[in-house]
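As a warm-up, study this chain.
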Amino acid sequence: MFQLLQKSAGKLLGFKVPPVVAINQCRALAQQQQQLQPTELNPFRAPRSVWIENLDTIEEQKLGIQELSSEIFGATPRIDIVHQNIEWQRKYRFVSFANTKTRNEVRGGGRKPWPQKGLGKARHGSIRSPLWRGGGIAHGPRSPTTHFYMLPFFNRVLGLVSTLSIKLAQDDLHIVKDLEIPTEDPQYLRELVQERAWGPSVLFIDSSDIMPRNISAGADTIDHINLMPVYGLNVYSMLKHDTVVFTKKAAEEIESKLTEHLHRSDARSLMTKFKVDR
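Now compare it with the structure written out below.
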């Protein structure tokens, strides 16, 4: 078998490979791969390093380096799961109020329009039948109609992982020390976002839902700058904003929570309680 492979390789390359040299090369390559570290074999598993920035000055200052898990912030994006999350978030809060009347609800039509026999006409019992103009609608929409459904738990988790990885790969995810700014003037936030090229819309995420007073008052009058606690993080909001800014504590918290969910073993009991028919 080895001789056949050697002959075919020699024909393709145009020269003959001595069997001893080929065996030695294979052994050397195998030893070299065994000596490599796991991170060198798979560079995508290396931790992602992100600068920790400040918010107390408009000019950007580097305060340190934050290492993020490649399993959460460096995963291979699943665009199909991201799309599932977006459709789920758009539909679970939508209620259709379109409504049509049936033949029993349309006004009039209680009398038989003409006798059953004798006139040579088709048989009708009411002028409000769906066959008549101005009559009821058969199988029309009946309000309120909800479009709610529950996306599987791990599809939601993978949606967050994919979106975080996409944002970091596109350099649209930043880490700051905290959300303390020196003034509550909205112009300060506008100049800060413009100076750092964060795009027209920014989402600030903190570990608590009680934000600092200055940034809360400053962002209150700016529609495209929003604040969100880490427990409200979702795919739709991250993709809706150009830049996502985490505090150091919020990044650590979302990383630990998603890592826990990715490796938990009670998936069946988790998804059972979200079934609609229970």
